Each structure stands twice: as C-alpha cells, then as structure tokens.
Amino acid sequence: MGKLATIARRTFLIGSAAAVGGVAFGVYKVRQTAPNPLLGDLPQGITALTPYVRIDGQGVTLIAPRAEMGQGIHTTLAALVAEELDVAWDSIRVEHGPPGAAYYNRAVMEHNVPFADLDQSVTAEAMRGAMGVMAKLLPIQVTGGSSNVVDLFDRMRTAGAAARFALVAAAAQKLGLPAAQLKTDNGSVLAPDGQRLTYVELAPAAAGIDLPASPPLKAREQWRYLGKSMPRVDMVAKCNGTATFGIDVRLPGMVFATVRMNPAMGAALLRFDATAAKTMRGVLKVIELPGGVAVIANNTWRAFQAVQAVQCEWAEPGYPASTAAAMEAITASMTDKHRDSRLRDDGDVDKALAGGTVLEAEYRVPFLAHATMEPMNAVALLKDGKLDIWAGVQNPTAARDLAAKAAGLDAAHVHVHVMLMGGGFGRRLESDYVVQAAQLAVAMTGTPVKLTWRREEDMTLDFYRPAAVARLRGATAGKQAHALDVRVASLSPAESNLGRLGLPAMGPDTKIIEGAFDQPYGIANYRATAYRTPAGRPVSYTRSVGNSYNGFFIESFIDELAAQAGDDPLRMRLALLTHEPSRKVLSAVASMSAWGQPMAAGRGRGVAFHLCRGVPVAQVVEITVTKDGVKIDKVFVAVDVGTTLDPRNLEAQLQSGVIFGLSAALYGEITFAKGAAEQTNFHDYPVLRMQQAPQITVKVLEGGGAIRGVGETGVPPVAPALANAIYQATGRRIRELPLRKHIAFV
Amino acid sequence: MDMKLTVNGTSHAIDIEPEMPLLWVLRDELNLPGTKFGCGMAQCGACTVHVDGNAVRSCVTPVGSVSGAVTTVEGLGTPTTLHAVQAAWIEHQVAQCGYCQSGQIMSAAALLQTNRAPTDADIDEAMSGNLCRCGAYPRIRAAIHDAARRVQRTGGA
C-alpha cells in the first residue's frame, strides 16, 4: 500500500481538490481513527456518539459531512443514519459539520485514478485503495464528483447502527437486563415490560460505551426509509423563506462589502483612485486586495454603487487575452509535446484507419460559467485571534486553510461554518471569495463583514469550464464501427485548481479525457489521447467536468459513424456496448421513446449514451422544427444507479442534469476580449427558462452493481442527443457548442 | 428624510435614499433575507415580491417609487397556515438548492391571484422571468397546477 500510495502521489493528479498543507504519509496514520471533531467544543449535556450523530436535550441531530447545494444530500444522509439508529423521520435534525479529518471523502479520490470506472482489475482497484488512503491523510472533505452516496452509504449507516448499539447497551446497564432483550422504537429503547427509555436520557451513559467498528446493518428488505421517497429535510424552510444561505447570514453590528477584481482574472491592480467612492453615502472603507479593490459600507447596494465609482487601472494578463487566442492555444497544443495521456489504445488504430473510407471531424466547445443562482459571498469575523467564516463551500478544509493563510493565522484558529448553497456546480470548490472575506475581516478586526459579489463579478471572475477541441477519426466495416481515434485538447482543471491549493500538478489530468477513453464500446481499434494546453486563464471543475464535453464529442461522432454505415444509431450503439447494464439502459430508453416509430414531418429524435462516474445513462431527445426555430419537446432518460436510495430525489437530480446540460448546449458560452469575459449577467449569458423546459421522463434501473451518485450523470448525454435529433430532423450536423451559433431555438 | 414603507403588514419609517432598490431595503435595512439577490437587473426573478398583490422585481424597483403594501415570502403564509402555492411546492418537493424558490413562489402566487386555472401557456408566460439553475421547472409547473386546484377548492389564495 505504501508503495502504491507513493506512486499515486508522484504520478497522478489528485483531482477535485485537496487541503493545503503538509502531507504526512505513514501507515500508522491510516490505521489511526481520525479524532471526532465534535468532541472539541461540545457544551455540557450534549453527547456526540460518533462524528455524525449528536444527541442533546432536544433530540438527535445528524452532523452532515457533506454540503447541501441542491442535490438533497442532507436528506439522504439523514435517511441512512435514521434507518439504522431507529428514529422518527420528523424528529431528526441536520446540521453541516465543521471541517474535520473524520469527514474525508474517499470516493471523490477513488474516481481520480487513470482507469475507467468499470475497470475492476487488480491494478485499478489497488490504485483506488491508495487514493482513498490519501483522502484520509490529506484530508479531503469535498462535496463533488457525484461521490456522496458512494462514499457515505456504509459509513452513515454504520454510524447510526453504532450509536444505536451504544444506546441499547446503556439501557441494558441501567435496567440490569441483557441487551438482546431490548428493542428500539423511534428514538427510545423498549424493555420487555413496556418500559421506555428515550435516547435523550440514555445519551450520557451511551457516550461511555465502546462503539463497535462494524455493527450489523439491516438487510435491504427491512429498510423503512431507504429506497423510499422521503420529504426533504430542507424543503419547508426553502418554501417559506427561512432557509439560511451564506448570503443570508446576519450578525450584530455587521458591515457589508463587495469587491471589484481585475477582469483579467489573476492579473494585478496597477493603481486606483477611490476619492469619489469614499465620499458616497454609507461607505466606511476602501481597501486594496491583491488584484483588486473592496468597498466596505453599511449596506450592500451602497457598496455596489461605490465600488463601480473606484477608478482602477489593470495590468494585462500573462495568458491569451481573446477568445481567438485562447482557442488557438488549445488547437496548437494538439502535438506530441503536449501529450498528456493515452489511456486507451485497443487494437491498431493506425492500421485500421489506413486505406478505406475514413470519417474525420473536428468538434469544439467553449468556456462555460457556473452561474449559480446565489452569487459568491462569505461572512467573516476576526475577533480575539480567532477567525469565523460563514459560507457555502464545497471544500471546507481548503477554504479554512486558505483563509487562515490569508489572515496569518493557524488553521486551528479558523472555523468555517458551512451554509446552504444556492447552487455549487463545482464553483464553490474554489475558495477565492472566502479568502477575500478573510482579508476584509482582518481590515475590520472585531466587526463582522459580509462580502457579496455583484452578478457581474460572479459571471466575469469565474473559474470557467475550459474550452476544448476534439479531432476524431473513425471507420466502419459493414454496419459496424471498427475504428475510433479521439484526440482531445484542453486546459487542465486539476493543474489549475491544485496550483491554487499550493499543491504541485504531476502526471496526467484524466479530467481532460474522461468520458472519451472510458466508454464501454467494444470498438476493435479504439484510441484516446489527451493533450494539455499550457496553463492560461484559471479554470476549474464544472458539473461532470470532462464528461460535459467528451460526451458531446464521442456521442455525436458515433452518430456520424452510424450514418456512414447506414445503420440505426441506437442499434449500432447496442451492438457496440460490452457492458450489460449499459445495454439495458439503452434498451430501456428505446422502449420509453418508441424509438424506431415514424415521426411527423419536421420532427426528429436523437439518442446518446454515456457512462459517467460509473453510471450508465441513455437519453432520447425529441424535437420539432418550427419556422422560428427548434423546440425541444421531450427528453427520456434511463439510468442504472445500482441501488436507489430516494427515487423522487433521483428523478430531480436527473431532470436537473438535463436542464443544466441543455442550457450549455443551447446557449452557454463565455468569450474574452482584452482578457475580460464579455458576458456579464443573464441577459448575455442566457440559461434555459420555463417555457423552454421539455417534459423529462426518468426511468431508473437497478442492475445490482455498486451504489453510485447521479449529481452529474444527467448532464453529458443531452447535448449530443439534441444535436443528433437536429441531424435527424434537418440533415445538419452541428459540431460546435453552443448550438445557437448554428441554429435557432424557440 | 424618512421614507414610509409597509412590509408584511408592518409599517416602517426608514432614513434611506429613494433610489435604493427595494431588495436592499428589505435585505439589509429590514433584515428580511427571504427575498434573494440574483442579478440586479430583473433577469432572474429571485428578488420577486408583491406590491399590492402584483409581482415586481425588487432589485430594480427604487424604494422611493413604492407606494403600495409590500409582501415578501416571509409574509405570504405562516408556518401553521401555508399559502396554497407553498403547500403545493412542499407536496411536489420542488426545491433543490432552493435559492430561486422565494421568487418562483411569489411569481406563482401572483399568477393565481388573477388566474385561478392557468394553462401551461399561462404558466410559461408568468414564470418566464424566474430562472432556476437546478432545473426544477417540471416540478414548478406541476406544483402551480396543483396550487390552482387547491385555490379553487378553498375559494381563495
């Protein structure tokens, strides 16, 4: 294990995110259980039985180790704990836990090995094990990568079962009865004579019981919460306006701030003049930050007005400053010098493509903004040498460590209160806004500061999904694809993100090519090569990451090959797929959409398949071509997640992925001039609206494989399925996103 | 100069410049954070409130121009008696991240005040100004139809 871990560390980018600071390796540390972060500051009368379960006078609180950004994870985690702990659904409360080593995310690391998700070879599994070990050591408490249920399915149930064990043992001691004679019922232990001891009263004694490491877990047939559609724990608060997002935090005496950074992200502020801004009503302070300015005022809007009155002179960026130059850098990197990986090389592609009819195509996708509904924000208070931060963050350990560094404090003196997020999509894996809030707190020591970004700042100072270019070649024999050569060039989100975390970027970035090398197509000659464009404007992870564009490249091109072979595109995919659950989702979507049935003139349908984070998903998009443009009528989705924990939430996640993917497919594009993004708000960065949202029908299969998350899965296939439908209806093959550059939509 | 403003049935006298958008008076001055900031230019609808029952985008509405009674999501229903739209939202489990939902709910409630049986086209028109990045649109539509049935049953929104 030690050797593999070293190889992993030296050879591969860690992926989504990691904590800043020392990396201490050693087997002893792996075996050591991480300290329970709740024990540090528990007031008297409150018991923390495990890092995930806290019991006080009011009842049971689940301490969620992952952040809620819309995906319903707090509800699912509550169901996992409640199932084993045996508490009533409406009695359980959920809080986000503090950053702590016990909350590390193993699964998000395991997805970052350079093996296909379906590869279960000894080497791939050993590497996943090593990456999981690294997650514990670093530690990595990331919410992202569709990793939550994968990581926590067993851990949360075990936490619930262990806590229940201790409560029963405490009751047994108190009653002088063997534990085997006791039962539990909705938050109480029941004695054979009907006596009832509540968990609340048993908790202090239970805290002294040694917890079993592997308590027995319920069989699936015994589940009463899992597998059912549970009311979300955050639903009522989100419908009556009482849910507290980061932007809603209010502290006594708080002041309100905003920032204005060099629109050429990362480049310097040369000089500024705040004379006019300082005279404006409510302005308390104008301060310089690295690369920009901040205004602190007594009202957010006053800060917004004043920051625009500051005269700033910006430095030029050291990277390509226009869209044309950025795209040129990407295409120019498609050379051996910049080759990043070749993770698939089946058969002999060069031989298969020599002679015969070879289909060649170039595909492109643009830079994309995350555009969460809640603009970036954070509240910070520096007082008595301690820094408290309230913010929606997907990587609280990184936020804590980077804020500590900015404030000149030890991380032990920084407390991050993780708030509900008004969308994440990967944007909140970055900590820039948290660092700024920490800097403002230093400038206003003793006074809480709320930093809120204007939408214009949020749109233009984003760590974008990088643009990418693919060159594909393929050949068919009879009615089958027998050669596929895919080459993809893009900026490396891992290199960019890790650099900000102070970690070196070593080895290939699988994110560039994920979704292109790992698809379960049994094409005899199949090669996938990634090229890494030299670092330019900062980029980062966006929902489904490389899959978001590689799905479009591969699934559009497979359609082109089917057209060349004169075959039905769905039938050809079925014939190519070597993975049975993948074949089943494709067959399911075919029957849902009545694939093959004739359609009226002016209508069309397209199909795409994709395997993302181990989840096979197939989609069919139905369109009507009207005189004003294309109307998207229906989307059918079939997916296999192994085991379904909450059917209604699963449906919501897939519908969400489809709408998110359609926004990018139709409209999403960030362009640059003089280093600045040219799109500033939703008027020039449109996203899908109500009247454009298609009917979305979801069917979930349970193939019995490992449990998987679906936060990202719905995204990748929808763009190619739509482009394929447009091809079927109009004969036009569009090889560039956003599609609206080539065809109108209504 | 003090400005008079009635919000959720409570009148306030506040010293504020009349050009400040209603949104920031609600959020920062009156500490009513249920109304959300999304774009600042009436593009996303997260800031939707009612003025005399009509849906307005508070982020572009100067507080000095507001003469009617303001209702925010905090004043739409109460925890014990939810508004029909809120009840339908909960029944259909509409919210994901939930950030846009205050605005969605206020737009939907305003729609049902003037149209008790909205068609899909009516919903498209009334809700087209409210963005949802989580893509809850299918459930928003279903919940509005459900809320309309609730309103029809009880005879009032």
Helices and strands, with pairings:
The complex is a heterodimer of chains A (746) and B (157).
Chain A: H1 2-11, H2 27-31, E1 47-50, E2 53-56, E3 59-64, H3 73-85, E4 93-96, H4 106-110, H5 122-137, H6 148-175, E5 183-185, E6 188-190, E7 196-198, H7 199-206, H8 235-239, E8 255-261, E9 269-273, H9 275-278, E10 283-289, E11 292-297, H10 300-309, E12 311-314, H11 323-332, E13 339-346, H12 349-353, E14 359-365, E15 377-383, E16 386-391, H13 396-407, E17 414-418, H14 432-443, E18 449-452, H15 455-460, E19 468-477, E20 480-491, H16 493-500, E21 525-533, H17 547-565, H18 569-576, H19 580-592, E22 603-612, E23 615-626, E24 629-640, H20 647-666, E25 672-673, E26 676-677, E27 695-701, H21 718-730
Parallel strand pairs in A: 3-4, 8-18, 16-17, 20-21, 24-27
Antiparallel strand pairs in A: 1-2, 2-3, 5-6, 6-7, 8-11, 9-12, 10-11, 13-21, 14-19, 15-16, 15-18, 19-20, 22-23, 23-24, 25-26
Helix pairs in contact in A: 1-5, 3-6, 6-7, 13-14, 17-21
Chain B: E1 2-7, E2 10-15, H1 22-29, E3 48-51, E4 54-57, E5 70-71, H2 73-76, H3 84-91, H4 101-114, H5 120-127, H6 137-154
Helix pairs in contact in B: 3-6
Question: Care to describe what's here?
Answer:
The complex is a heterodimer of chains A (746) and B (157). In chain A, helix 3 runs parallel beside helix 6 and helix 13 (396-407) runs parallel beside helix 14 (432-443). In chain A, strands 10-11-8-18-15-16-17 form a seven-stranded mixed sheet. In chain A, strands 13-21-20-19-14 form a five-stranded mixed sheet. Chain A is built from 21 helices and 27 strands. Chain A is globular, with a radius of gyration of 27 Å. Chain A is 31% helix and 23% strand. Chain B is α+β, with helices and mostly antiparallel strands. Helices cover 38% and strands 14% of the residues of chain B. Chain B has six helices and five strands, in the order ββαβββααααα. Chain B has helices at residues 22-29, 73-76, 84-91, 101-114, 120-127, 137-154, and strands spanning 2-7, 10-15, 48-51, 54-57, 70-71. At the A-B interface, helix 8, helix 10 and helix 20 of A face helix 1, helix 2, helix 3, helix 4 and helix 5 of B.
